[in-house]
Design a protein that fits this description.
134 residues; mainly alpha; 7 helices; binds zinc ion
Length: 134
């Protein structure tokens, strides 16, 4: 088979657009996780979240056990307690915050490009450039 016979299933601009949508959805979930400890009482969060499958099935804690408690402590600025609940709580929280900032910066830069009358952002290009260049 020559290289000319290889079929492209997804065009690069469509892949970028799909990845952007996935990033926005994941970031939305991350934002909910970050905001929940400020909006929902700790007791209610414990009731809302499912029991750890590892604890239920094997009686052993998983990597994420205590993460909810850690995030609640971080929201209250109780960092030592957060670290005691789950050592990965602070790094994961920082990663979530960094992701939200990155998305905000990306969306702001996209708006600026759109206002300046430049080329359409890649996630809009996929929707408008389907071969009908006029
Ligand atoms: Zn667990």
């Amino acid at each position: 088979m020559s290289s000319r016979q290889v079929t492209r299933w997804v065009r690069p601009e469509e892949l970028k657009s799909a990845l952007f949508v996935v990033w926005v959805i994941i970031s939305g979930v991350m934002l909910l996780v970050l905001v929940a400890p400020f909006c929902v009482p700790a007791d209610s969060l414990a009731v809302l979240l499912p029991e750890c499958a590892s604890m239920r099935l094997h009686g052993k804690p998983c990597l994420l056990c205590g993460m909810t408690t850690a995030f609640i402590h971080i929201a209250r600025a109780e960092f030592a307690e957060a670290r005691a609940a789950n050592r990965l709580g602070l790094p994961l929280y920082a990663l979530f915050v960094a992701n939200e900032l990155a998305l905000a910066l990306f969306l702001c830069s996209r708006k600026r490009v759109g206002r300046a009358g430049g080329e359409a952002p890649f996630n809009q290009r996929a929707c408008t450039s389907r071969g009908d260049r006029s």
